[in-house]
């Protein structure tokens, strides 16, 4: 996904090579991650696609199947990876992720601690935000889930930016080796208030903290625990409303003029006052809210470590 060259400069490969991860875009709600492999094929509703035809092409290319169908070959950005990764747990999506990164003030070179790796959706974006010289240390209590996340980071080229550990942060806290070194801490835990004292210990002076919780009762208990160590405590709920923009047909009414309504095909209608109106259909671009809008995802609680 993201490659660091010897000079530690973050970059994307411009063309597809054998073994590269590719996001195959069929339509806006149908994408899949595929590793390009010489001799392999992809078969879907649009036909059979040979991987050998992909290799050497730039990301963003449109490729055709033997029967004329087509797909787009996209670079696996964190935003697209979030849409295609395996859901081992409930994940954070782009609206919450962008809000977290901005409010935690994460920039290149930061050291970030995360507990609750889950499917690695947020971790992937955190890695890009801290690159090329920063690092994300993420922990999950579930060994198999942590192992799957580690494999994903290797697959997406982020293993030099992310370290995955198996640890019960609620019960044991973060490892002592990180005391006073973290720029930011993120928690996605059932009982985040249990880990807040450890999070405060890990942060540098003026460090930032965020906790994601699906229930407001969790937020209340977390805020109580935060007051001892943190200031500027705020909770947000990010609601995203998607609009569909498409070309459609619209009926237009106009009065009769000199017995003609121009060149548009139309129907004549008699009004209640005896006059005639003409109706014609015109093409126009229309926008309307999506019928499948995502509502509540969770609550994001932010805080800043008190300066001593």
From TrEMBL:
Recite the UniProt keywords alphabetically.
Methyltransferase, Nucleus, S-adenosyl-L-methionine, Transferase, tRNA processing
Q: Where is this region: Disordered?
A: 250-269
Q: Where in the cell is it found?
A: Nucleus
What GO annotations for molecular function exist for this entry?
Answer: tRNA (adenine(58)-N1)-methyltransferase activity
| Primary localisation category | nucleus
Write down the InterPro entries for this protein, in alphabetical order. SAM-dependent_MTases_sf, TRM61_C, tRNA_MeTrfase_Gcd14
The residue ranges of the tRNA (adenine(58)-N(1))-methyltransferase catalytic subunit TRM61 C-terminal domain are 69-304
* Binding residues for S-adenosyl-L-methionine: 119-122, 140, 168, 188
The similarity comment for this entry is: Belongs to the class I-like SAM-binding methyltransferase superfamily. TRM61 family.
Q: What is this protein called?
A: tRNA (adenine(58)-N(1))-methyltransferase
Identify the species of origin.
Clitoria ternatea
